[in-house]
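Intended use. Records like the one below are meant for learning the mapping from a protein sequence to its folded structure. Do not use them to infer anything beyond what is encoded.
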Amino acid sequence: WDAAYERELQTFQDIGDAGEIWFGEESMVRIIRWLQRHQVPLDSSVLDIGTGNGVLLVELAKSGYMNLTGIDYSPSAIQLSEKIREKEGMSNIKLKVEDFLSPSAELPGFDICIDKGTFDAVSLSPDNAAGKRQQYVSSLGRVLKPEGFFLITSCNWTKEELLNEFREGFEILEELPTPKFCFGGRIGNSVTALVFQRK
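Structure written out for the chain above:
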């Protein structure tokens, strides 16, 4: 990931391109719409897990959210998101190099945690993926306040599989609509987007 974000950082410095938006613009719109529809207060504390280039945080800030934190275990990703934050003039976004699988005590209880593809990346770890998924769920339980919301967008997991992964300590509130496709007479989604609430 460092190498990928170093390339994106160089591209941003050269031509001002922020790089890849995981799952596209509509994934950010979907998240922001859900927060607005449920009248989530603008001062709610929001954690973007695996923030990458931080573009989601910038969009949340433009929508009026004020208490925003992004973490990524790649220092290059945080460097890139800092440059984008500066360019956009969003000084209220906090960014930290942090491994979510072993979060520091500095990560307090958040009202909302958002994941676009980080759980997918953790799941693809060649080294003890099942153990790392359990660590992820445990970390989520530590950083998300009771009754807090967890919004996850995944391209690797179905709704049923995610319900199983997050069954301990979380309950499903809503499945968000995502683009559908048809193959061999069956309809499916290439992306799953769910909202959980911490019990």
